[in-house]
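Run log // design_07
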């Protein structure tokens, strides 16, 4: 392992992106300048996330569940609501949840037994 790669391993994600941004800043092409600005924006977000472990955990869960949106960065209530709704939806899905599947099967059994009054 080179000295430079060892140095990169101990850098935060934000610092690492800023290092990449320095490289791209040398280019005068507008698309590279735009890319460079985006890297710096992401680095700033990463730095902000690191300061709040709750936000970091919620954002990570949203990303893992593939439901993350840019709005979640600035709207913690939306982020939490979206995460709770997703987890609730998964918990009630009989294809995923054994408890939900048992409830469906219980309902089918009750229906077959005639214990439920049928509407006329």
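design_07 sequence
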């Amino acid at each position: 392992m080179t000295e430079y790669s060892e140095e990169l391993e101990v850098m935060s994600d934000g610092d690492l992106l800023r290092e990449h941004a320095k490289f791209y800043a040398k280019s005068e092409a507008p698309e590279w300048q735009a890319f460079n600005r985006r890297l710096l924006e992401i680095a700033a977000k990463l730095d902000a996330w690191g300061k709040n472990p709750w936000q970091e955990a919620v954002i990570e869960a949203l990303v893992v569940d593939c439901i993350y949106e840019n709005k979640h960065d600035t709207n913690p209530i939306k982020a939490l609501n979206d995460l709770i709704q997703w987890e609730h939806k998964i918990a009630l899905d009989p294809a995923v949840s054994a408890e939900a599947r048992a409830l469906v099967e219980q309902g089918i059994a009750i229906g077959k037994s005639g214990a439920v009054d049928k509407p006329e």
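The two ends are 78 Å apart (CA to CA).
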